[in-house]
Amino acid sequence: MTTIGVIVPAKDEARLLSRCLTALAEARVRLRLVDPSVVVHVLVVLDSCRDDSAEIVAAHPSVNALAVQASCVGVARQCGLRHLLDVVPGADWFANTDADSAVPPDWLMTQLAAARDGTDLLLGSVRPAPEDLTEVELAGWRARHDLGDGHQHVFGANLGFNRRTLARTGDSGRCRFTRTSI
């Protein structure tokens, strides 16, 4: 059996978080159709949130939340990983996206294929949704990001890795967090 832990850092993302969680739910449904034996644990890491992000997570019963005070997406992501390692000891693949992202319906199937093929690390691109940006912001993003083969951008919002790769990093980082009741 394969177990996938999905980590979603969020800092005041109430405006886009529901879209993210709905997209993940659709990806879970699609994955379940292909292989119902795969277990997926989705964890939203609420990083210093002052908005309604926690309430949005609570409206998605198949999603768990962890509150942290990191004010740093990388630290929040690491805290989420540490939490999943503690509460889901059988997780063998970790997929990462961001609260302002909406994964495609086949995203978890792609993550599963990488996990089963023995892939150590899966890096993917992201593209902003045009409706989320002004024309000037979108043009600026496109000017800074060439996503053709060989591009230099690595996006935590589309990243996957296996437990073996994590163990080889020697990462022994510690996170301080508070658990939420949702």
Automatic annotation (TrEMBL):
SUPFAM superfamilies: Nucleotide-diphospho-sugar transferases. It comes from the Bacteria. This is 4,4'-diaponeurosporenoate glycosyltransferase. Belongs to the glycosyltransferase 2 family. CrtQ subfamily. It is found in: Cell membrane. CDD domains: Glyco_tranf_GTA_type. Pfam families: Glycos_transf_2. Residues 6-151 form the Glycosyltransferase 2-like domain. Keywords: Cell membrane, Glycosyltransferase, Membrane, Transferase. Its main location: membrane. GO terms for molecular function: glycosyltransferase activity.
